[in-house]
Design a protein that fits this description.
globular, 120 residues, nine-stranded parallel β-sheet, 55% strand, mainly beta
Length: 120
């Protein structure tokens, strides 16, 4: 899985570490394989329907790098991130949209200003 903007509509496994620009999940689960990292370089993530980013095992990571993780969850749905979420420097995680975001992984933000913001 590589590319500028990635749109997931079917069950997909990120079986190797990769970098993408943005991510839309609409229709099924994205699984990050054991020990692999999916880096969202822009920080933009949209849950367009009830779905999840699953952990394939130990070390499965969704990384935003030094960018703010901007997760939008559409109204009436639930987006779940079960993989580790990581960020560096003064990265933050912002949730927007009227849907529900569930974080169930161990999250590792490193930096001076650890914060989460919920807008919606």
């Amino acid at each position: 899985m590589t590319g500028n903007n990635t749109y997931i509509t079917g069950a997909t496994t990120a079986s190797a570490s990769a970098a993408i620009n943005s991510l839309v999940i609409n229709g099924n689960t994205l699984t990050i394989a054991t020990g692999q990292t999916l880096t969202d370089t822009s920080g933009a993530l949209l849950f367009a329907s009830t779905n999840n980013i699953a952990s394939g095992g130990s070390g499965s990571t969704l990384a935003f790098g030094s960018n703010e993780g901007m997760v939008t969850v559409n109204s009436g749905i639930t987006g779940t991130i079960a993989a580790i979420i990581s960020g560096t420097n003064s990265a933050s995680l912002t949730k927007s949209g009227l849907g529900t975001l569930t974080l169930s992984g161990v999250n590792t933000y490193d930096g001076h200003d650890e914060r989460c913001r919920w807008n919606g």
